[in-house]
Amino acid sequence: MQKLLIDGKKTLSGSIIISGSKNSALPILAATILNNHTTIKNIPFVNDIFTMLNLLKFIGLKYRLSKKTNLVEVINPRKNINTIAPYKLVKTMRAGVLVLGPLLAKYRKAKVSLPGGCAIGTRPVNLHLFALKKLGAKIKIKNGYIFATAKNGLKGTRFRFPKISVGATENAILAAVKAKGITVMDNCAVEPEIIDLLNFLKKLGVKINIKGRKITIEKSLKEKKVSHKVICDRIELGTYIIAGALAAKKLKLKNIDKSLIKKEISVLKRMGVKMSIGENFIEVYKSGSIKNINLKTDPYPGFPTDLQAQIMILMTQAKGLSKIKESIFENRFMHVPELRRMGAKIEIRNNTAYILGPSILTGAEVMATDLRASVSLVLAALIADKRTKINRIYHLDRGYQDLEKKLINCKARIKRV
């Protein structure tokens, strides 16, 4: 199993091109089931993307990719379609369940394995199934699979999600675009990645209106040749801003959309992070005096749970006590024991982490437990004394394109073994 060896205390400098958003590209790839010919630009070539492409291939779609131009072309041949998403392709990636909505909408049946992904909480699919049932689907779960049918097609309806869920909102949108009549969904997630999905579907002629957390969809999808550019990855961007604040003389982040991370920029500025923000770039400088802060993760536009582990590293360098309350997932502090091994002073009580800083971090052998936890260990290793060995880095490869290459180009000392 591969490991990362990172020598700490190296000053970063240079520039990094931010990749396209994995969390945006995955539901848009699932949406290609609904169309006949789709070109997606600015695709990040990470393992989750390849897993989704293999799933689309299993279903019967064809694809062509260009790593040089970060482009994927997907064609639905309309014949020999397999409405099954098997365990072997869904077990490592929760987003695999997103093919359920479009398969059910277009082919009126689907058999999809219950999903896997990061072990950061129970993350049940009950809200996905709740929405599909409201649209008229008949659903049963048997032998680890979701069996869904809609013999006469899905029907537009009105409903309110009992809890905000990104994945359930995406699956409901992908099903509703072919439902008869009008669908009105309330208490939806409205993350930028969902807005990107809606913008893609609008190119297919779908009539969509969004107001607050209410999304209205009218069946009007027309299959046609369409092209779409995925938004930049706001979580990758936030991760590298924090890396710059921790260890950079000057780090320039390019190919960005600053409007996607207003909350994150506000929080980091309050902590004393020095940055210069341009139209499509951000320059970050090592910040000598980091201030403590109290935070809570929340659905967008709140502070994202996917940046909780990374900002915790910045908190270890702040003067005084910082607190971060995790309100999205109940098991997302698994990086904390590993950070303690490196010398961080962190306590967990209920769903809140208490971080006392500044801490002197020391290199150690640690283990990645999920995607965002693994990159937090990379950030800690960049500022630690001596060498850190990070095990189980396959988590990193699921969501960060060319992480070592990008950091090595900025003078970090990292080796994969």
How would you explain this protein's 3D organization?
By secondary structure, this protein is an alpha/beta fold. The protein has 2 domains: 4-18 and 232-416, UDP-n-acetylglucosamine1-carboxyvinyl-transferase, Chain (Alpha-beta prism), CATH 3.65.10.10; 22-229, Enolpyruvate transferase domain (UDP-n-acetylglucosamine1-carboxyvinyl-transferase, Chain, Alpha-beta prism), CATH 3.65.10.10. It is built from 14 helices and 25 strands. It has helices spanning 22-31, 47-59, 87-90, 100-107, 126-134, 166-176, 192-203, 234-247, 262-270, 308-316, 336-341, 371-383, 394-399, 403-408; strands at residues 4-7, 12-17, 37-41, 62-66, 71-75, 84-85, 109-113, 138-142, 145-149, 158-160, 182-186, 207-211, 214-218, 225-229, 248-254, 274-277, 281-285, 290-291, 294-296, 318-325, 345-349, 352-357, 365-367, 387-391, 413-416. The strands form 6 sheets. Strands 18, 19, 20, 21 and 22 form a 5-stranded mixed beta sheet that branches. Helix 5 (126-134) runs parallel beside helix 6. Mean pLDDT is 93; it is low at 117-123.
The coarse silhouette is globular
CATH homologous superfamily classification of the largest domain:
Enolpyruvate transferase domain
How far is the N terminus from the C terminus? 9 Å
Looking at the structure, the CATH topology of the largest domain is UDP-n-acetylglucosamine1-carboxyvinyl-transferase, Chain
Content-based structural category: alpha/beta
Q: How many strands?
A: 25
CATH architecture of the largest domain: Alpha-beta prism
The CATH class label of the largest domain is: Alpha Beta
Radius of gyration from CA coordinates: 21 Å
Count of alpha and pi helical runs: 14
**Helix coverage percent:** 25-40%
